[in-house]
Amino acid sequence: MKAAKTIPSVLKYFLIVSVYLLLFVSLQNRRSKTLLATTGVDSSSDDLRIRPGYTNYDAYIRRQLNKTLNPKLRKIWTTRDWDRKINVFSKFFDELKRENLLSNSSKSLSIGARVGQEVEALKRVGVADAIGIDLVPFPPLVVKGDFHNQPFRNDTFDFEFSNVFDHALYPTKFVAEIERTLKPGGVCILHVALSRRGDKYSANDLYSIKPLSKLFRRSELVRVRKVDGFGLDTEVVFRKKKMIQRS
């Protein structure tokens, strides 16, 4: 009688363990899918790799601030590099104007603008309504903002520029915020590095433009060209698709 009672107990134990194992595996699979969706990494592609080492988002922000708040770098950005970078950015923006990708009336945003050289360059080529965002503000050119969660309403800008895609810990969020705040028909310009890796503050490494084309789900790729932009070698242009009017 004791043996008869023991067998069902053992089976019950194994049944409970099996259920817990199935739940554990299911939970791990969900977490993996969530991570892939959040980072924007295609599991079948190595063309966009998120760098390891960030235990949480606060740790990522602290590391980015280590660069942005570095007094030596900020002095360089506002003195020696100031005019040099403005001149280079002005040439980029002038060419975009000639291609009708940018105009004097374009409401423009520079993403990850630090001390605002790109914003100043936009203003100098005639784009008066221009502002930048960065974790650390630099008035009046740059306001405080996280590019993973832009502090602007939907469909705000005609033009958005960024050369800090490599600093995005969550590329999907980075691009989604651009497409959210960009007006239908608006233009986004990204300067990225494909032939070399970013600095120690970069959060991802990009090896081709294929991941960008997948991330910009609501936009069409306009063109790609080589540039010499302070260590960034490729300019990628997207235009947000216009909404189809239903009758």
Could you walk me through the main structural features you see in this protein, from its secondary elements to its overall organization?
- Keywords: Membrane, Transmembrane, Transmembrane helix.
- The chain is of the alpha/beta class and 247 residues long.
- It contains seven helices and nine strands, in the order αβαααβαβββαββαββ.
- A seven-stranded mixed beta sheet has the order 4-3-2-5-6-9-8.
- The longest helix has 38 residues, at 2-39.
- The chain is globular and about 40 Å long.
Overall shape = globular
Task: Output the strand order for the largest sheet.
Answer: 4-3-2-5-6-9-8
Extended strand count: 9
The amount of beta strand, in percent, is: 15-25%
What is the straight-line distance between the termini? 78 Å
Classification by helices and strands: alpha/beta
User: Unreliable stretches, pLDDT < 50, 5 or more residues?
Assistant: 1-7, 10-44
SSE order, one letter for each helix or strand: HEHHHEHEEEHEEHEE
InterPro entries: Methyltransf_11, SAM-dependent_MTases_sf
Keywords: Membrane, Transmembrane, Transmembrane helix
Domain Methyltransferase type: 109-190
Protein name: Methyltransferase type 11 domain-containing protein
List the helices and strands and how they pair.
Layout: H1 2-39, E1 48-50, H2 57-68, H3 71-78, H4 82-98, E2 108-111, H5 117-124, E3 130-134, E4 142-144, E5 157-162, H6 171-181, E6 182-192, E7 204-206, H7 210-215, E8 219-229, E9 232-240
Parallel strand pairs: 2-3, 2-5, 3-4, 5-6
Antiparallel strand pairs: 1-7, 6-9, 8-9
Helix pairs in contact: 4-5
